[in-house]
Amino acid sequence: MNKNKKTTELHPLEYYLELQYPITLYKDSEGGYVAEIKDLPGCMTQAETLDEVMTNIEDARRLWIETAHQYGDNIPIPANDDQYSGRVLLRMPRSLHRKLAEGSKQEGVSLNQFFVFLLSEAITQYRIKK
C-alpha cells in the first residue's frame, strides 16, 4: 500500500460521496476521451465526448465508493498539495551539475529557480505528448 495515500476509518456512505476527487482526462488515441480518478485505483471510464466522459466518471466514482463501502474497504481521501513539501534531494553526475550551474548563471537566476523552470517546461512537453 502506498504510504503517501491517506485512508480513513469507515464513515457513513454520504461522507465519501460528498468528497471531491481530482479527475484526470486524456484524449484517446483512437478518438474520444478517457477519465481517471487516480486516488481510487481502477476508477476510470471512456466516452466519445467530454460531456459523456464526465457523466461516466461521476457514475464510476459513485459505484467505486459504494462498492468499497459495502465491503468495508478503506476509501482513500482525495490527494491534495499538503502531501508534498516542495523539497527533493537529487543526485546527478558532476558534469550535469556543471552544465546546469552554467545555464542558471547565463539566465541570471539561482540554480534552484533554473531547475524549477526546466522541470516546468519538461512536464508541459510531457503532457502535450501524452
Strand content: 5-15%
Helix content: 40-55%
Distance between the termini: 27 Å
Question: What is the helix/strand order?
Answer: HEEEHHH
- Tell me how many strands there are: 3
* Total individual domains: 2
Q: CATH class of the largest domain, please? A: Alpha Beta
Q: Main sheet?
A: 3 strands, antiparallel
Architecture per CATH nomenclature, i.e. the level-2 architecture of the largest domain:
2-Layer Sandwich
Number of discrete helical segments? 4
- Quick check: average pLDDT? 87
The CATH topology of the largest domain turns out to be Double Stranded RNA Binding Domain
Across the major sheet, the strand order is: 1-2-3
Return the structural class. Answer: mainly alpha
Uncertain stretches of 5 or more adjacent residues = 1-8
What integer value in Å does the Rg equal?
20 Å
User: What general outline do the C-alpha atoms trace?
Assistant: elongated
